[in-house]
Specification:
With 232 residues, the protein is mostly beta strands. The chain has one domain. 9% of the residues lie in helices and 37% in strands. It contains one helix and 16 strands. Strands 3, 5, 7, 10, 12 and 13 form a six-stranded mixed sheet that branches. Strands 4, 6, 11 and 14 form a four-stranded mixed sheet that branches. A two-stranded antiparallel sheet has the order 1-2. Strand 12 and strand 13 form a beta hairpin. The longest helix is centred in the last third of the chain and has 22 residues. Keywords: Membrane, Transmembrane, Transmembrane helix. This is 13480_t:CDS:1.
């Protein structure tokens, strides 16, 4: 089975890339039941959002620009105000506890953004060391915020996944899941922490990936060394 980036695939299959920017053949790796995205992570959690993009089983690549978009779900009261979202990436979350005291633990997590005012944000897919993540096909994105429901404060959330994220970047950056209201999105190089624009025209700061910082420093030093060598 040959896949293209942004395509949907079974997350229990491990796809081995033949080389950078190309998808190889898939083979069955994990037959464990998938994580239930409707599960409560804590006792005060209330599912109140649907994440539109990226959809479950999407294949993402480091440094790709991906639009995360969400809205209120049918379970959510339409008059409940929702804003100031926090977004996080998890790998292989698992439910534990019981109905009265639910808990979810993940093997790895990465903060995407905080303080998002609108219902969408552009995200640069992170590059992470291969030894940090056991299964690259079990990523999930959770969007959450606090809301007053029937006089009580609750954490309302939405989760999408599973997603596959490669451990190596593509040769060319691409944008996936461009917002419907935009006909064109300008591609920019990945930066070590960047200001991104939300639908409310305000800016939020995405957390820098320190492995990207180290990579950028190495590349910069190589360029300086090459320039010095030319003048010697």
């Amino acid at each position: 089975m040959t896949l293209t980036f942004g395509q949907i695939q079974d997350p229990r299959e491990e796809v081995i890339p033949k080389n950078v920017g190309q998808i190889g053949q898939a083979k069955l790796k994990d037959k464990n039941p998938l994580f239930n995205t409707n599960s409560q992570w804590e006792s005060n959690d209330r599912r109140c959002m649907d994440i539109i993009t990226p959809p479950p089983f999407s294949v993402l690549v480091p440094y790709y620009h991906v639009w995360i978009r969400w809205n209120k779900s049918e379970e959510c009261n339409p008059i409940t105000p929702l804003t100031n979202f926090a977004i996080k990436l998890y790998n292989n979350p698992k439910s534990s506890g019981n109905v009265n005291n639910p808990k979810v633990k993940a093997e790895w997590d990465h903060e995407i953004a905080v303080g998002v005012q609108g219902f969408q944000i552009e995200w640069d897919v992170p590059l992470f060391p291969e030894d940090e993540v056991k299964n690259i096909s079990l990523f999930y994105i959770r969007v959450q915020t606090e809301a007053n429901i029937n006089g009580g404060m609750y954490t309302v959330f939405g989760v999408t996944g599973p997603l596959t994220i490669w451990t190596k970047p593509d040769i060319v950056n691409k944008t996936l899941f461009t917002p419907e209201e935009k006909n064109h999105t300008t591609l920019t190089n990945t930066t070590t922490g960047k200001l991104v624009k939300s639908t409310s025209d305000s800016f939020v700061f995405t957390k820098p990936n320190y492995y990207e910082i180290m990579l950028n420093i190495v590349v910069f030093c190589c360029l300086i060394a090459s320039g010095v060598a030319l003048f010697l």
